[in-house]
Write a sequence for this structure.
């Protein structure tokens, strides 16, 4: 399979078309298939965690609270891609791939993050439209978002910015403070069967889908 890809000229190493039999250093060289970086490096790990409420996303907590890295294997050293508030639950990507993490968190790549929020009161259609169009927060206008009602007090929002407490602040701004917030999707990554506190390694297909998402923004 790998040989076929190389023979078809679809693999590049540091931008040059790869040749069969040529040695490659997977630690220092950048390998791409069809222009998408692939990890041939066994040291790179990618975990999808369902973060429970009360667990912090910082690497260490001065108050002794459990951190997300306490919930996944300790070796190799890993970090979370972006943050979820201590009270927020749901999907969090944890890795040691700095390049992918940087691209996923950079707003210009615009990878979607989907949240389900249980809120106080019942947002009207006009309120949902306001959230959709974008609204003024103290750090500027929010970009247009996808917003839909899931139930009287439950709404689904998809945003691609990663501002601090953004979803909570958007919902505060329209008079519907969040009671519970769960992240249900990061770009192509979804998982309805991971229980809070559980993690799993990403599949090779999911890693490739993520690489593609940061290339295209979706
Ligand atoms: N928006 C929030 O308000 N909190 C999060 O944890 C993530 C997005």
């Amino acid at each position: 399979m790998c040989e076929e890809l190389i023979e078809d000229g679809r693999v590049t190493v540091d931008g040059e078309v790869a040749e069969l039999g040529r040695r490659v250093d997977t630690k220092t060289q950048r390998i791409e298939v069809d222009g998408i970086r692939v990890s041939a490096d066994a040291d790179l790990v990618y975990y999808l965690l369902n973060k429970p409420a009360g667990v912090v996303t910082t690497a260490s907590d001065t108050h002794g609270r459990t951190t997300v890295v306490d919930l996944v294997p300790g070796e190799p050293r890993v970090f979370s891609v972006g943050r979820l508030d201590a009270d927020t639950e749901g999907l969090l990507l944890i890795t040691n791939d700095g390049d992918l993490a940087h691209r996923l968190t950079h707003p210009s790549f615009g990878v979607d993050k989907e949240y389900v929020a249980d809120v106080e009161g019942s947002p009207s259609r006009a309120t949902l439209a306001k959230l959709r169009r974008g609204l003024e927060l103290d750090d500027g206008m929010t970009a247009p978002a996808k917003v839909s009602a899931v139930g009287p007090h439950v709404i689904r929002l998809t945003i691609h910015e990663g501002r601090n407490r953004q979803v909570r602040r958007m919902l505060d701004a329209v008079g519907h403070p969040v009671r519970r917030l769960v992240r249900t999707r990061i770009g192509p990554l979804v998982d309805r069967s991971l229980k809070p506190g559980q993690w799993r390694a990403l599949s090779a297909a999911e890693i490739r889908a993520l690489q593609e998402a940061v290339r295209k923004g979706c």
The domain at 38-107+189-216 is CATH 3.30.70.580 (Alpha-Beta Plaits). The two ends are 28 Å apart (CA to CA). The chain is about 20% helix and 30% strand.
